[in-house]
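Retro notes
What went well: the complex prediction finally ran end to end.
Inputs used:
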Amino acid sequence: MGKCEICEREATNEYCELHEKAHENIVQRYEIWQEAMDISWREYLSALAENSYTGSWAKDVAKHLNQKDER
Amino acid sequence: MAKYALIITEKPDAAKRIATALDSRGKPEKVEDNGVPYFLASRDRKLVVVPALGHLYTVIQDRGGRNYYPVFSFKWAPRYKAERRAKETQAWVEVFSKLSDDADDFIAACDYDIEGSLIGYCLLKYACNGKESVAKRMKFSTLTKSELEKTYEEPLPHLDFALIEAGRTRHEVDWLYGVNLSRALTLSARRWSGKYATLSTGRVQGPTLRFLVKRERAIGLFVPKPYWSIHAEAEIKGSACEVEYERKKIGRKAEADKVVQDCRGKAGKIESIEVRKYQQRPPIPFDLGGLQTEAYSLFGYTPRWTAGIAQRLYLAALISYPRTSSQKLPPAINYRGILEALGKKPAYRKLTSSLLKREKLTPREGKKEDPAHPAVYPTGSLPERALSDQEKNIWDLIVRRFMAVFGEPAIKQSMKATLALDGHHFYLRGRQVLKAGWMRFYKPYIRTEEVLLPPIEEGEVAKLRQIAREDKFTSPPPRYNPSSLLKKMEEEGIGTKATRADIIQTLYDRNYIRDKRIEVTALGFDIAEILHKHCPRVISVKFTRELEEKMEQVRAESERRENVLVEAVDRLKPMLEELKKREERMGEALSNAVKKARMEERIVGNCPNCGTGKLIILYSRKTGKRFIGCTNYFNGLCKTSFPLPQKGTVKSLRSECAGCGWPLVEVRTKGRRPWRLCFNPDCPRKEERKKYGEMRDLRERSN
C-alpha cells in the first residue's frame, strides 16, 4: 500500500480515501461549472482553490492538481 | 438525643430551601460538621435536613488494576474511593452515617428524576445502613414553600424503585462501555508507543462524535456549484423597493446576464397582487431541550450553560424543575396563582392582568410528556436575591414563554405583488402583523421583521431603478453548534436530557472538537475513523438507541435491570475481542493520531518573517525554557524566535491580533484570568494594552 501524494496517509492509488473522494467530486462537478460559465479545467481548479466554500480536502486536491499541471 | 426524621436532599441550596419551608418559624438552624452543612428544623417533630453533593456513590471495578480489559465485575462504592478529585466527599458520607444512627424516619427529598432518585437510594442503602426499604419519598417539581409542605405531609410511602433501577442500569451500562472501550484505546496506544495519552469513547460519546465526523467529511469534501441571482430595485410611488426575480437561482451566467440586459432601465406593470392572511399559533411550553435551543439562538448560551442557569433558578424556587422532557402544563400547577404572583413585578403587570381577565386559561401544549414533571414554568415567586444578567435573561424567557402559551393566535398578513416586465417577472413581498396575540407576551424574543410596502394597485407602472447580477455559490452543510448537536442527539434518541450536554462537553474536554461552530479536530477525526475501521459497532447510532430503549423499559417496569446488563455485556464482549485482535494496528494508528494532534496543538500560526515556515512552541535544549520559533530554523532558513511566559500553560488561539495580524496565544496561570498574548514586540496595540493593564491594576488595588 502506497502513500497519498498530498497528505501521506495510506493510499491504494494516488490518494488516500478522503483526497480520492474529493478528487471524484471535483471531476464530477467540472461539467456543471463548464456548462454554467464556460471555464477551462485550469481556471476551474484555480477558482476552487480560492473559493471559501470549497472543503479543505477538495482544496488540497485542486491545489495539488494545479501544481502538477504547472510542472 | 431525641429521635428525628432525616431528610436527604441533593445539594446544599436545596437543603436550605427545604428546611426553611418546613421549619414552623421559617428559620432552621444551620449546623456544620467537618465542613458539611446541614439544617435543624422543627415542625410536627424534629427534622434534620442534610444535603448531598450530587452523586456521593459511583460504580467502580470490583478488583484488579487499571491496566487491562475487559472488566465486567463492578460494585457501587463511595466516590472518594474511586476519584482523586472527590476526596472532600468522604466527610459528607461520614456525616450521613453519623446522623442516620439517631434517626427513626428517613425521607428522600432529592430531585424527582433518575439521578436524584439514585442519589437518595445510594445514601440510604450504603451510608445509612440499609434504610432504602423503609424510607419515604417527597415528590415535587418546584421548591416553593406550598409544594414542599404539601409533599412533606403526603409523601410517597416508599422510594421510586422503578426510577432507581433505571438509574442503576444506566450508570452500570455506561461504566461497562466507558471503562472497557476507553481502556482499549488508551492501552493499545500505550503498548505501541510506550507513551500515555487519555483517549476515551463511550456508549453515547462515540456515536455523537460520528455525527460530527460525518458532517466534517461533507464539509471537507464539498465542491461548490456556481449560480447567479438577480438583485433589483423598483421605484413605486416615489419610493424604492427591493424586488425579487422570479428565479432565485440561475444556473448559467449567460442567462443571468441576459435578464439584466433585458430589464435594465425598463418599466413594467403590476400584474397581480396576492394578499394572504394567516394565523400563527402560540409557542409550546419549554422542555429542557426547547429552553436550551432558544437560549442558544437568543443569547448564545451553550446547552450546558443554560442547564446550569436553569438549575440555579430552580434552587432559588423561581422556576419548576428544568430537567424535564414534558411540553405539558397541567392545570394543577395553578395558572392563575402563578400569573397573579408574577403580576407583582411591574414589568409583567399589564401582561398578566390581560390574561387574568379571561374566564378560562388554556395553554397550548406540545406532544412530549414526562411522567415525573411538567414543562418548565415560573413558580410565581420573585427573586429574593439579585440575579446575574444571565439568570435574569433565562428567567424572563421562561416567564414570557409561560405567558405566551396562553395567548391568542397572532394574525399575520403577507402580500406578493407581481411586476411583469418584458416577459420577466419580479416579486415585491411584504409582511405585517395585524393582531399581535401571543406575540405581545413574547415580544423581546420575536425575530421576524415586518416589511411594509407602499400602497400598490394592479396595473400600476413601476420602473426598475437598479438591476445587477450577483455571483453566488452553493454552500456546504452548516457546522453543528452545541445546540443543534443536542437536538440531533435528541432526534436520534441517544443520551438523556440530563446527560447530553455533558457528553458534548466531554468531547470538547478530550480535544476531539473545538469552537462554538463545532469543528472536529484531527484527533477527533482520527479516533472516529479508527473506531469505524476496527470496530464500527462502537460508534453505531442504532446500537446505542436500542440500548437506550431497553433502559427506558426498565423505568417503565417492563424490563429487568439484570437482563439489560446481561445483554449489554453480551454485545460488548465481541467488540472488545475485535479490538484486542486489532490492538497492534489500532495502537499504531492511535499513537500517530495523538502525535500529530500534539504537534498541531503546538503550531501557533504562519511565520510573519519568512512566510513559508510555521511558528511553533518549542523548548530550549540548553535551558528547558519555552519560546516560539519558526520551523524553517531546522532547515537553516529562518531564525525568527520570540520569548514566552514560563509559568502556566500556553496554547494557540487560532486567531489573529486585531492590531498587527500576528497569531495570538492564550496564557493560563493559576489564580489569574486567562489572557491573550500578542508576541509581536512591535505590535501597535502594545502601548494601549500596557495602559489598560496599569489602569486595571490601579482599579483592583483601589477596590
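What we learned: The longest helix of chain A spans residues 17-37.
What to try next: split runs per interface for comparison.
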